[in-house]
């Protein structure tokens, strides 16, 4: 799966002429353009909703694990997969916009929709939808609630049972309020938590500013096997960096397109660019914040495959959030455990919200034209039960279930976007041509010869452009 993600990302980078570099200005501009409508959310709200899913325990625990088993060089390979993966995120999110539908008064879309409409394989779309439903409602919420529960227990001595009940009540209040409430909460919480986390990392870097040349030299030397201590594990650096990078930024996994389809835009490429930038925010900013706190303070252990310790700076501390806690404690004593616990709470809490939205979208896909109120009610109960179960179970079980759920989705989605890349590439070319003419790009699927994009053919009206542009 790792090689497949890398290969697909590299292929899309070449086919889009490395849009992740060429169009970075457009990514930032489109993030803040346009408003919401009765049916859709704004570009920024869709970005926040997708970041809710991307920014989770992987940014704290995952980054620490990459350093523990891949050495400091793993950080470079996390950056590399984010750079390559941004093109995959663009393709899948643009496809979600092209083939989205207006259903029960709200925009819906994602891999199941573009597989059925774009490829014509309804059986494959149903398979992806069922896999996503299984992953998002049962297998994956436990990872996030488990991290919240352990973090709060370590920092404040709170019982995991009490934490589980509290998280279930808070999540329930939000998800029973519908997609607009989920997007609204995400648009406030996600920027706040990410900025606070990044600012703290900058404080720690600032307090160790003399170490900047040495830390960057360590990262790059370790990444290419030139460091005397970590040079022997270059393979592990690549492997763990890519693994944890993919897990964290989710590019090409089929998660981001669900949120992308909900955006009110005048051209699919606009939201594709915004979602490509979300990969940068996740890995280049939030994961880097964790990595810098750990490396600038030397708060990490690194174990070679044969069990020998290449770095043993934190005797007895398990790879994970403990590294970040130790890093903060070394600079601001008495603050590390509580800050990381709170950060984990916000990161993981919003991720569970995003999981619910993705699961709901796939229930809506499977039950189109039928009364789905009962099914949506059952989904909410199942997800809340899985969230509570994860909070009170062992971490190893939670992560094992999550890996299974995610793995199924990734394979199914990557195959689909490889087959379906052409409409997204057409949309990108059309967007750039209209921009060159000084126009605010507006999508015309018929003109581009893209079939089965019914929303853009029938429902997208001229009067909607004011909201969408």
In short:
The chain is mainly alpha-helical and 469 residues long. The strands form two sheets. It has a two-stranded antiparallel sheet with strand order 1-2. The longest helix is centred in the last third of the chain and has 31 residues.
Please tell me about this protein's structure:
The protein has 469 residues and is mainly alpha-helical. The protein is built from 23 helices and 4 strands. The protein has helices spanning 2-15, 19-22, 24-31, 43-54, 57-70, 73-98, 111-119, 122-139, 141-156, 160-175, 179-207, 212-223, 234-249, 256-260, 268-297, 321-331, 336-366, 373-392, 395-419, 421-436, 445-448, 454-459, 465-468, and strands at 101-103, 106-108, 301-303, 309-312. The strands form 2 sheets. A two-stranded antiparallel ribbon has the order 1-2. Strands 3-4 form a two-stranded antiparallel ribbon. The longest helix has 31 residues, at 336-366. It is globular. The model is unreliable at 462-469 (pLDDT under 50).
Q: What is the helix/strand order? A: HHHHHHEEHHHHHHHHHEEHHHHHHHH
Largest sheet: 2 strands, antiparallel
Tell me, rounded to a whole number, the average pLDDT.
85
Total number of beta strands: 4
Shape: globular
Strand ordering within the main sheet:
1-2
> What would you report as the Rg, rounded to the nearest angstrom?
21 Å
Structural class: mainly alpha
Bin the helical content: over 70%
- Which percent band covers the strand fraction? under 5%
How large is the count of helical segments?
23
């Amino acid at each position: 799966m790792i090689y497949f993600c890398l290969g697909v990302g590299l292929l899309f980078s070449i086919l889009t002429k490395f849009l992740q570099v060429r169009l970075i200005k457009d990514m930032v501009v489109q993030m803040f353009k346009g408003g919401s409508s009765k049916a859709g959310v704004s570009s920024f709200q869709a970005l926040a909703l997708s970041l809710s899913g991307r920014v989770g325990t992987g940014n704290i625990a995952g980054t620490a694990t990459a350093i523990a088993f891949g050495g400091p060089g793993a950080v470079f390979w996390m950056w590399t997969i984010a750079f390559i993966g941004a093109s995959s995120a663009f393709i899948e999110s643009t496809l979600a916009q092209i083939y989205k539908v207006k259903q029960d008064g709200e925009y819906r879309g994602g891999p199941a929709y573009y597989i059925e409409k774009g490829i014509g394989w309804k059986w494959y779309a149903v398979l992806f939808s069922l896999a996503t439903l299984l992953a998002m409602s049962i297998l994956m919420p436990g990872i996030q609630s488990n991290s919240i529960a352990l973090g709060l227990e370590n920092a404040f001595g709170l019982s995991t049972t009490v934490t589980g009940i509290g998280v279930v009540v808070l999540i329930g209040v939000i998800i029973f309020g519908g997609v607009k409430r989920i997007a609204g909460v995400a648009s406030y919480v996600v920027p706040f938590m990410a900025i606070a986390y990044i600012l703290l990392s900058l404080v720690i870097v600032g307090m160790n500013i003399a170490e900047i040349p040495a830390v960057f030299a360590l990262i790059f030397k370790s990444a290419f096997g030139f460091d005397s201590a970590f040079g022997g594990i270059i393979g592990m650096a690549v492997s763990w960096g890519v693994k944890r990078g993919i897990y964290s930024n989710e590019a090409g996994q089929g998660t981001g397109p669900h949120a992308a389809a909900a955006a009110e835009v005048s051209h699919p490429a606009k939201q594709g660019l915004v979602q490509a930038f979300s990969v940068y925010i996740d890995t280049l900013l939030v994961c880097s914040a964790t990595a810098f706190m750990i490396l600038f303070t030397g708060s990490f252990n690194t174990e070679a495959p044969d069990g020998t310790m290449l770095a043993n700076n934190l005797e007895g501390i398990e790879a994970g959030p403990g590294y970040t806690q130790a890093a903060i404690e070394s600079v601001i004593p008495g603050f590390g455990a509580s800050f990381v616990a709170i950060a984990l709470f916000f990161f993981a809490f919003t991720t569970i919200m995003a999981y619910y939205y993705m699961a709901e979208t796939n229930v809506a896909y499977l039950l189109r034209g039928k009364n789905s109120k009962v099914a949506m009610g059952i989904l909410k109960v199942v997800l809340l039960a899985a969230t509570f179960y994860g909070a009170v179970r062992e971490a190893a079980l939670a992560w094992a279930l999550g890996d299974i759920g995610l793995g199924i989705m990734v394979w199914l989605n990557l195959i689909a976007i490889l087959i379906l890349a052409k409409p997204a590439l057409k949309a990108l070319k059309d967007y750039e041509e209209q921009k060159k003419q000084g126009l605010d790009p507006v999508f015309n699927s018929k003109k581009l010869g893209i079939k089965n994009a019914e929303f853009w053919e029938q429902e997208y009206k001229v009067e909607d452009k004011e909201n969408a542009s």
